[in-house]
Every structure is written in C-alpha cells, then in structure tokens.
Amino acid sequence: MKLIVAIIKPFKLDDVREALTALGATGMTATEVKGFGRQKGHTEIYRGTEYTTNMVPKMKIEVAVTSGLAPRVVEAIQQAAHTGAIGDGKIFIFDMAGAVRIRTGETNDTAI
Amino acid sequence: MRLGYLTWGMGLAGIALAAPAFAQDAAAVVAEAAAADPVPNKGDTAWMMMATALVMLMIIPGIALFYGGLVRTKNMASVLTQTIAVASLAMVMWIIFGYGLSFGGDFNQFISAGKFFLAGVTADSNVATFTDGVVIPEFVFVAFQMTFSAITIALIVGGLVERMKFSAMMVFAIVWLTIVYYPVAHMVWYAGGDAATTGLIYGWGALDFAGGTVVHINAGITALVGALILGKRMGYQKELMAPHSLTMTFVGTGLLWVGWFGFNAGSALEANGIAGLALINTFTATAAGVLFWMLTEKLLGHSGSLLGACSGAIAGLVAVTPAAGNSGPFGAVLLGALAGIACCLFVMKAKPKLGIDDSLDVFGIHGIGGIIGSIGTAVTMLAVLGGPAGEDYQLGAQLWIQIKSVVVAIIWVGVGAAIAFYIAKALTGLRVTPEVEREGLDLGEHGERAYNY
Asked: Could you give the angle at the alpha carbon of B330 between the alpha carbons of B324 and B331, nearest 5°?
C-alpha cells in the first residue's frame, strides 16, 4: 500500500479528482495549505507600507492506494495537475504500514 | 458656520424651571423675546433634523467601519467599541456642560458659560441662522452641534488603535473634550454680544464653514500627539499589519461621504442656496480627492488602489469642509485634488520616515487635509474661481487670518492634547500589556471577538 501526497495548484483540484476517479481510486483528502518552493510570493501595498507574502496558497491532496495502482495514480496526478508554469507543485510517495475502515473493521487493501 | 448665533425667544416654561442664578439672564431674554419673535420655518427645521441624523450616520457606523476594516481581525471589536463609547460619552457630556462651555452664553473669547444641563433651553427657544430674522429650534442646533463633538473625538480613535486601553480612551476623551474641543468650538464659531465675548478666531473673521479647524485640524493634531505619547504598535513596520477588510473600509467610506452632506450642507443651518452650494461641493471635492490620490499612487510607481480611492475621498471631504459654502464647485475640485495629492505624498513618503505610528493616518488625512482646506478657503472664496467673495474681498488679508487661525489652533490643540494624554496615562497606564497587544484587544480588553467562525 502507498500513501501519495501531492501539493498542487488549487484550481487543478477538480482535474485531479476526475483523473483519479477515472482510474478507480475510491477516495481522496484535500487540504488548503500555504508554502513556498521555487515560486516566489507577492507584494501587497497599503498606503505605502509594503508587505511581502512568501507563502503561496496551494492544495494538498492525500490518496491511499494499493501498491499496484500507485504508479498509475502518480502518473495521473502529474498529468492532470500540469500547467508547465513554475509552481505546479510536487508529488510525494510513502510506503503505508496499514489501513482500517472504521465502520466495518476491514483492514489493509480491502479498507482502501 | 460662517457666523455665530444669538438666542432669540425663550419659552416661559424654561424660565420657570431655571434656577435663581439664571433669573437675570432670563429676564433679559424675556425683554428680547417681546421685541422680536421670529418663528422657525418648518423646511429649515426638517432639514436640520435630517442633517443631524446624517452626521450621526458618519460616526455609527461610518467612521467605525472605515477604521475597523483597516485594523487586524483581532482588534476589530475594540475599534468599534471605542468609537461607539467615546461618541456616546461626548453626547452625554454635551448636554451636561459641553454646549454650555461652547455656545452657552457670553463669557470670554475662549469659552462660553451658561445653559449647563441645557437649563433654560425649551421647545420654544430658537437660535438665529445666518439670514436676518431666520431661526431654527435651539434643541435642533444643540443636537446638530452635539454630533460634531462626537465625531471629532471618534476620529481621534484612528491614531491610537490596536494598543490603547479602553479605560485610557475614556479618561482621555473626558479631559480632551473639556479643555480642547469646547474652547476651540467657542473660539471659531461663537458670536458674542461684544468683541470681548466673541470667540477669538471668529472675531478675527476666520472662515470655517463646517469645521476644518474645529473638527479636522483638531482631530489630526491630537492623533499625532497621542501616537507620539503612546508609542508605536509592537512590530510596526516589521510585521504584517494589512487591513483585515477593505470591504468594511469601503462601506465606511460610503457612509461617511453620504453623512458628510448633513455635516457640510447642514452647517448652513437653513435649507437654502448656501446649503445647496455646500452639497454640490461635497460631491466635487470628494470626487477630485479620489481621482488625484489614485493618480499620485500611479505616479509613485504603484497601482491605483481601493484603499487609495477611499483615502482620497476622505482627504477631499476634509479639505472641502471649511470651504463648503465658501467656494464654487470648481474651487472645490481644486481643493480636493490638492488634498488628494498632498495627503497621499505625506502618507506614502513622509510618514514612514517620521517613525510615528499614527496608525490609520488621522494626521496624514484630517490634519494635512484640514490645514490645506482651512488655508485654501481664502483662495476658493475668490470670484474668479466661482467663489462667493464680494468686490471688497482682500485675499492677502484673509489668507493671513486663515494662517493665524490655523497656527493658534495647532498650538492650543497640541498643548491641550498632551495634557489630556498624560492625565489618562497617570490614571490608567494608557497602554495595554504586551500580552494583550499580541493576543488582540478584542479578547484582552473586551472579552469578545468581532468574528466567530
């Protein structure tokens, strides 16, 4: 089992969701986050006082999948979230030790 | 107000209620009442009641929202609370002794004395307007002037936000209204029986139609002195202190602009052509202020901004206040444009170097705009600019009177404000603790939040 964490541009969330649904991934968690990488922030000016914002708003998505599905999920996210401009984000892949569906008590592959 | 006012007929009910100490005055008034007994015009009265309510709208919620939007989320409730509390305090003080010290009757060039607790003022007492034989009910005049004292103290809040104790604000307001506002209002607007009892600045012939000196220079200088004594906010010019809601500030700007029609056109004290002139000037100067502030931003290499537009509107409104009935509509445009440019340059270029945290630019907009308007009024009077000056108008002489008045006001206000702030400091400590400042005054001073979501 793999946990795939991706930081993407917020407006790409729907594209990514559609791509994953098409692949048969049955769930996903999305969180609004802030951060910085190579993309720089922006400057705001109020009555002459400048404030530089270093953190850029991003969307973090987390998807737990079986090991077999993982490479195709990563590929789908990469293609769906891609614009070619700086700030498209990153995908991180973790090995996952276990999973439990709370309602039924099912574990691991059957739980995700 | 271009002229002061005199008390006309006073009702018998009021005389019966007056304490023995007032008996002599009352007797004199009865004689006067018998001589001439003009009746208030219903149109004038209706307009002045409307104008009074419009000025109230400028305070609650106009200036409160304008200022509130400019602070951080954690201090929003404290700004709204301070504004409504000091304005309410000013209203109560006004009928106890504020009106008495400002307009209550002949005493000297610096204060009036009389009509404390509005003793002797009845539904039948009237005050003269600027036209011979025209009067409005005295209660309406008292209420109209009451709102002016309330908005002036509320304006000062903007220089002191995000760090001053609520208790300090209230103590300061009591002292400041007593030793600064009431004397200045008397000096600029009170016409007494003779030169020794007429207000000093009014006696010189200074022009202040709706309060460029009494309201705006007064508030601007006081906020500057207060910001200096109070010190900067923690993290000033280092941490993010961006306005939490420019939408609120925009709504506040709209309420101020609309309310200002009551403030300026109401200062004619009648529903007539002069009020109409003040009305149109309150449009044109403000519009010019909006455009020229944004243009100045552009020329300084920034984008024209919403906050710039709102700030320019206030700068234009402030500058046209003393000139409202003393200028043609194009003179008002010039005044608004000049204020938009000068206030923008001061706020964006000079203030960061001064290192004084006049947080919401009360001095930068009301102080600078008020000085430009008060001195500029001498120029906008000129007939060549469409102003109402007559043939015998002496520009140089009037200019000198205006400058002299501004200097006297600045000195009086500067010293009085310092005294008021130091008294508040001695009694309350003036400033919240660093913990409260960090946490926000909403929770620390009032135990509530403006927003729960």
From this structure: 55
State the ipTM, two decimals. 0.77
Position B8 pLDDT exceeds 60? no
What is the full DSSP assignment across chain A? -EEEEEEE-GGGHHHHHHHHHHHT----EEEEEEE-SSS--EEEEETTEEEEE--EEEEEEEEEE-TTTHHHHHHHHHHHT--SSTT-EEEEEEE----B-TTT--BGGGG-
- Report yes or no: B418 and B411 within 8 Å, Cβ to Cβ: no
- 3-state DSSP call for residue B365? helix
**Backbone Cα Rg of chain B:** 21
Domains of chain A: 2-111 (3.30.70.120)
Digit-coded pLDDT (tens) for B205-223: 999 999 999 999 999 999 9
Return residues 53-112 of A near B (CB < 8 Å).
Answer: none
Of the residues B66, B348, B357, the best mutation for testing chain A's interface (the one with the most A CB atoms within 10 Å of its CB) is B348
Instruction: Report CA Rg, chain A.
Output: 17
Two tokens, residue A97: 């030790």
| Displacement of CA A94 from its chain's centroid (Å) | 13
Q: Maximum Cα–Cα distance for chain A, whole Å?
A: 59
Tokens of B378: 């001498």
Rounded Cα distance between B75 and B230, Å, is: 17
Strand-pairing partners, residue A64, are: A3
CA distance B377 to B366: 15
Strand partners, A57: A34
Residue B64: strand, helix, or coil: helix
Angle at the Cα of B256 (from B252 to B257), degrees rounded to 5?
A: 120
Do B311 and A47 count as a contact with CB atoms less than 8 A apart? yes
Q: Which pLDDT value is given to residue B221? A: 98
Instruction: Tell me what pLDDT residue B225 has.
Output: 98
Predicted TM-score of the model (pTM): 0.86
- The amino acid occupying position A41 is G
Residue of A45, A46, A47 to mutate, interface with B, max B Cβ within 10 Å: A47
Architecture of domain B12-440: Orthogonal Bundle (1.10)
Which of A44, A48, A51 is the closest to B348 by Cβ?
A48
Domain ranges of chain B: 12-440
